[in-house]
Design goal:
This protein is of the alpha+beta class. The chain has 7 helices and 11 strands. This is Peptidoglycan-binding (PGRP) domain of peptidoglycan hydrolases-containing protein.
Length: about 300
């Protein structure tokens, strides 16, 4: 009995071992024997075909062609011409178109040299410009018509400092040389050439002012006259226009204030009278002149 159990145990152990070992040469049968697997017969006609390997595709990138380097053309260096800039011109000390006391002084100095044929006005216009050019031309200076520092220094050294009367004369044009008939007594000395009226007492000029005359169709009469009568607020009976501070000397012709002359200047003319544009001056003169005083009108 014991022997049979041992044999069974051994047999079971052997069977388990065979199963565990996985006998590769054959398979186990029912009775425990291994069955040999049939061997594959070697082919003598053709070699055994291997399982084909997957084909690997290689992508060959084309090598880029080397870029053709084009050498830049040789530089031709052009000689640099030096720039010749004009010398900097200093701004004028007194420029054309300006106005003021310095312009008035300029005109007075030029007038003292006989280069400015009128009284200072304080405005730098074309007449003053021509006078400055004449001075520059005569003194070897750059002729610009504007007063540079060099021109101003030269002009100041060539002239005296103007007086107040020379800087602020009473008339636009210088007074003309008085007619000999104006040198005695109390006289309204009226010059057509300088367009001025000078109130003179015994040959001395007391006051002066700008005046305007009649047109060629209604000219102001010339000669020696006297004041016949005065009318402070006179109105013309012919033209119905105001004739303030009128001093009649020849028929209907008189010395009087003219608002038209004050507004339009010499662009207009009177009907034969002697017009005055400065109301303050004619008002002061009206208070001094008496009937019987002489009136001299000359060219």
């Amino acid at each position: 009995m014991h022997r049979t159990a041992v044999v069974g145990t051994a047999l079971a152990t052997a069977t388990a071992a065979a199963l565990v070992a996985g006998c590769r040469a054959g398979e186990a049968t029912v009775d425990g024997r291994g069955q040999e697997r049939p061997q594959a017969r070697a082919s003598t006609s053709a070699p055994a075909r291997e399982t084909p390997r997957p084909h690997r595709t290689f992508t060959h990138k084309a090598k880029p062609k080397p870029k053709r380097v084009v050498a830049p053309p040789p530089r031709t260096t052009t000689p640099v011409t030096p720039r010749h800039t004009a010398p900097r011109v200093a701004p004028p000390v007194i420029a054309v178109g300006t106005s003021g006391d310095r312009v008035r002084e300029l005109q007075a100095r030029l007038r003292a040299l006989g280069l400015f044929n009128r009284n200072p006005t304080g405005y730098y216009g074309t007449i003053t410009q021509a006078s400055v050019s004449a001075y520059q031309r005569g003194h070897g200076l750059s002729v610009t018509g504007s007063v540079s520092r060099r021109t101003w220094t030269s002009l100041r050294s060539a002239t005296k400092t103007p007086t107040h009367d020379q800087l602020y004369p009473p008339t636009t044009l210088p007074l003309a040389k008085p007619d000999p008939r104006c040198l005695t007594g109390r006289v309204l000395c009226i010059s057509k050439s300088s367009r001025t009226l000078a109130w003179m007492v015994n040959g001395r000029v007391v006051s002066a002012m700008d005046v305007r005359f009649g047109s060629e169709y209604t000219p102001t009469r010339e000669g020696l006259f006297q004041v016949n009568f005065k009318s402070r607020d006179h109105v013309s009976t012919i033209y119905h226009t105001p004739m303030s501070y009128a001093m009649f000397f020849s028929g209907g012709q008189a010395v009087h204030y003219s608002s038209d002359f004050a507004a339009r200047g010499y662009s207009g003319a009177s009907h034969g009278c002697v017009n005055v544009r400065d109301k303050k001056k004619i008002a002061a003169l009206f208070g001094k002149v008496e009937a019987g005083d002489k009136v001299v009108v000359y060219k």
